[in-house]
Amino acid sequence: MIERTLVIIKPDAVKKNIVGEIISRFEKGGLRIAALKRIHLTKEQAKGFYIVHKDKPFYESLTNFMSEGPVVVMVLEGKNAISEVRKIMGATNPSEAEKGTIRRDFGESIERNAVHGSDSSESAAYEIAYFFSFLEIF
Ligand code: CMP
User: Fold this and answer.
1) Is 58's C-beta closer than 6 angstroms to any atom of ligand 1?
2) Is residue 118 lining ligand 1, measured as CB closer than 6 Å?
3) Annotated catalytic residue 116
4) Which residue in 25, 34, 62 sits closest to 46, CA to CA?
5) Which run of H or of E encompasses 9?
6) Which residues, in sequence order, are bridge partners of residue 129?
7) Which one of 5, 41, 58 would you pick to mutate in the ligand 1 pocket, going by the greatest count of ligand atoms within 8 A of its CB?
8) If 103 and its partner were Cys, which of 68, 97, 129, 135 is the partner (CB 3.0–4.6 Å)?
9) DSSP bridge partners of 76
10) Which pLDDT band, with edges at 50, 70 and 90, does 136 fall under?
């Protein structure tokens, strides 16, 4: 099924100047960019994006990190895009991620793990609409 998913290149990876390298891995994996922009989230915007984690112990720290510097947000499209992107990213914790995945190669910790990708079609719908209007996705 052709799906769309929301990916964020997190502040740690943007700071390392590896945006192109990360996008290239998704493109080589068969995904197509349907929308893309570089933004600097406020703390409140980061909190709204990660609202499902509001009761988790890592919510404060995660939203501080996500607003510490610019990020690149994009909509990727392709066959089974949600699970394909998650494969290319690797496990949330870089130390548990398989070799050759983005998080294994570039992640520093479970929080500073280089990329985010939607985990379900429900979260993809919320996350895409959080950053992009209908007219910006094509
Ligand atoms: P992400 O895919 O952006 O979704 C939520 C983020 O919370 C996750 O990646 C991690 O970077 C971060 N996080 C921090 N601590 C934890 C934890 N203990 N378990 C899961 N996610 C965590």
Assistant:
1) yes
2) no
3) yes
4) 62
5) strand 2-9
6) none
7) 58
8) 97
9) 5, 33
10) very high
Annotated catalytic residue: which of 34, 81, 116, 128?
116
Residue 12 C-alpha to ligand 1 middle, in angstroms? 14
Measured in whole angstroms, the distance separating CA 116 from the mean position of its chain's CA atoms is 3
- Residue to mutate, 110, 116, 131, ligand 1, most ligand atoms under 8 Å from C-beta: 110
Q: What is the pLDDT of residue 18?
A: 98
Q: What is the pLDDT of residue 79?
A: 98
pLDDT by residue (tens digit) across 87-115? 999 999 999 999 999 999 999 999 999 99
For residue 19, the surrounding DSSP H or E stretch is helix 19-28
* Cα distance between residue 20 and residue 14, in whole Å: 10
In the beta sheet, which residues pair with residue 39? 71
> Alpha-carbon distance 54 to 47, whole Å?
8
What pLDDT, on the 0 to 100 scale, is given for residue 32? 98
Q: How many whole angstroms separate alpha carbon 113 and alpha carbon 111?
A: 5
Q: Going by CA atoms, what residue is nearest to atom 3 of ligand 1? A: 116
**pLDDT the model gives residue 58:** 98
